[in-house]
Amino acid sequence: MRLEGRGSMADTELARVLSSIRDQWVSMTGMAAMFVVSIGFGIFIQPFYNFEEMRAFGEEGTTEAGNIILELFMIFLFTIAIIWLARKGLEVVIKGVVFLALGYSLMMAVLPILAIMLWIFGVEIDDLVVFAITIGVTIAMMYTLHKYPEWYVVNTVGLLVGSGVIVMLGIAFVPVLIILFMVLAAIYDHWAVNGSKHMLELADTMIDLKLPVLLVAPKDASYSFLDQESNTMRRDVGEDVNRERPLESELVQKKSRDALFMGLGDVIFPGMLVISSITFLPTNGSSVVFDFWGGATVPIHLGPMLVGLGTLVGGLLGYLALMTQVARGKPQAGLPLLNGGSILGYIISGTIALGFDNLWQDISFL
């Protein structure tokens, strides 16, 4: 009897998950599409920035593990600072800091787009003028976000910001260091969501302030992010999870969730490994598959591109696994599954395309 009871509860839980997935498939598919688009655009603009002077810590810094520890510490410090400012009611300061930080990454994505448009229309202007226009477009987009932070505005800025960050960090570190970064970040994310839960507080702060450090996937076009209630994440965690069977009203409530939210970090970390793969892995004599930018840029070869795409597929598989957990109705730490899938995708595709020995880079800890 006890075994039959457990089987019944397991069937009920599976039915709940499948029902939730069917109900939210539009949101989940939309989020997956944004995941691919942000990383895909990062791949597209990677040659535009793949130069020594654009690497955050220079050419030597690409193999120094100490820089990764510094980056992780800065993420932790930023998180704590934002939460402290929110508790003090200093939302204006939070917006100012975040807008300045994200404006630079947005500019990195806008500049190649502007260059393409000028090329299409056959316009040749001074580099200083191009830079000035880029700054102007960036400011205009951030102002639009500030005045009208609807979900499609937030997503547009978020996707471009994510692509810029992906490229800047992806060209700054070799894959081995990126993987170390991803493992440490996944551990931190798990603790911050399931342990201290301060990441949920951060997410609620960003949702309340309508800032582009997350992506919003609505269930339908009638959804308005402007009307999104506060304390979204912490309210879900506060639900009673000890009962064996949920009330029927609770099932209806879970089905009525209007949008899915995912932090930009859940896109950026898998994307960093994709960009690092196509930047630093050896070509092994493979042919060029992407040389859109020409000139002094370094083209992308088939071998590294296959590894990058394999990493992306691994990240998508991790995303699918994550969605089965999200369908249970609770906020989840995304990085353990997303990063884990991306790393597995990197190892498997890299071993097939280039050989396992070519996936390792010598690193130092100072």
| Pattern of helices and strands | HHHHHHHEHHEHEEHH
User: Roughly how many Å apart are the termini?
Assistant: 61 Å
- Structural class call reads mainly alpha
Helix content: 55-70%
Parts with pLDDT < 50 across at least 5 consecutive residues: 1-6, 238-256
> Which range does the strand content fall in?
under 5%
User: Taking Cα atoms only, what radius of gyration do you get, to the nearest Å?
Assistant: 21 Å
Count the DSSP helices. Answer: 12
Overall pLDDT: 85
How many domains make up the coordinates? 1
Instruction: State the strand order across the main sheet.
Output: 1-2
- Secondary structure tally: strands: 4
Biggest β-sheet description = 2 strands, antiparallel
How would you sum up the global shape? globular
Secondary structure topology:
Elements (H helix, E strand, L loop, with lengths): L1 H48 L15 H23 L3 H30 L6 H21 L3 H20 L4 H21 L2 H12 L4 E5 L13 H6 L10 H8 L3 E5 L1 H16 L7 E3 L9 E2 H25 L8 H19 L13
Antiparallel strand pairs: 1-2, 3-4
Helix pairs in contact: 1-5, 1-10, 1-11, 2-6, 2-7, 3-4, 3-5, 5-10, 6-10, 6-12, 10-11, 10-12, 11-12
